[in-house]
Records
---
Amino acid sequence: MNDFDLVILGAGSGGYAAALRGAQLGLSVALIEKEKVGGTCLHKGCIPTKALLHAGEIADNTKHAAEFGVKAQFISMDMLAVNAYKDGVISKLHKGLQGLVKSRNINFVEDTENSLVRIKLKSTELSTPVRTSSWLLGLIQKPFLVLRSTANRS
Ligand SMILES: Cc1cc2nc3c(=O)[nH]c(=O)nc-3n(C[C@H](O)[C@H](O)[C@H](O)COP(=O)(O)OP(=O)(O)OC[C@H]3O[C@@H](n4cnc5c(N)ncnc54)[C@H](O)[C@@H]3O)c2cc1C
């Protein structure tokens, strides 16, 4: 059985920020994630949308380039290349985040099958092989909820 001061379920913006802060405070931290560290913002939300918007902005600027005395011609969007650019941005940031989490000695646990933790939110029932003094939920874009303390340290 693993024993941690703090276990965080969900490694999105909220989860990894809490993990970094916990580690900074000297806690032993486990960060459990079923997909990838970075969560919605990095992989599906803020970052991909901003990358796509940036490509669109460049296309739009090209169309209006003459207004600024710039000779340029818009031909078409190459969506394969646009998506490759977007994926490259995500990948770079993802690698950076993985390195940051590792460098702070946070135990990142991939749990694709939800095998480590079973939580019923309504009854706050927990069933887990991970023992910890504090649980944080970083799952669903809601403020964190400290579920309950299971500390039994001597
Ligand atoms: C299209 C889009 C664009 C956005 N643009 C912006 C923006 O420009 N600026 C901004 O501030 N916000 C933006 N947001 C909102 C931003 O993405 C969220 O506010 C942010 O991701 C919330 O972080 P979170 O950690 O609470 O949740 P999430 O990032 O959703 O993280 C939750 C994590 O928990 C994991 N998880 C869920 N269930 C389990 C389980 N059972 N076991 C293990 N792991 C689990 C998920 O895989 C996920 O990684 C955007 C969102 C979307 C959808």
---
Amino acid sequence: MKYEYVLTSSLLNRAPIGAKTSDFKNYIINLFEGSHTYEMLKNEDIIILNVCSPLIIAESVIDDVGNYEKLEYNGKTYYYIKEAEKIDIVKVKNRKFSSFKNEYGNSCIMNLECEKIDEKIIDTNKKYQNELKPFNRADSLLVEIAVLYSRINLVSETEKIKMMEKIKEYANIIKKVGSKEHMIVLNKFKEHIDI
Ligand SMILES: Cc1cc2nc3c(=O)[nH]c(=O)nc-3n(C[C@H](O)[C@H](O)[C@H](O)COP(=O)(O)O)c2cc1C
């Protein structure tokens, strides 16, 4: 399953990043060439995955003007997001580069295999594990599908076509980032509409 974190490291830079994990111990992160985060992590093996609210995740793509706190690891300073609920400190075990073609030409992806080395609860008001879970896009997309589904028979044919396009788009994302449980519910919708 893929979770959305705010990634920080040894520079005052924050970026929303998706990390795949099935056990919250091992993570796969794919970074697309062209961002400061990509450059920073070419030579940096310690990454902080900040579990943040959707508001902070969204803000973090706009700029790096966040509230940062410092921590020391192996004699080096790293930054994390002050408003994070929890941080997972992960170490890069393996770094691979591959290229792919898109509409703009050739581009590079850096694939990072990471392992958790430490974690810290920042928001100590949140004591339960489910309050400290990172954001998953499939949750909100599944609810969006439910909203569209509830309205589909109340709208014109043209509107219905547009709604079906959105449902298909959301379903494709859920397939990439969701869990088995998300897929079970998605398949229930499939019994009623042509996704
Ligand atoms: C929710 C979300 C998830 C993202 N996931 C990734 C990702 O997995 N890999 C990536 O390269 N970029 C991802 N991005 C885009 C980066 O966040 C973006 O390139 C970065 O913030 C640019 O800022 P920087 O130049 O300071 O690194 C994501 C953006 C959002 C909003």
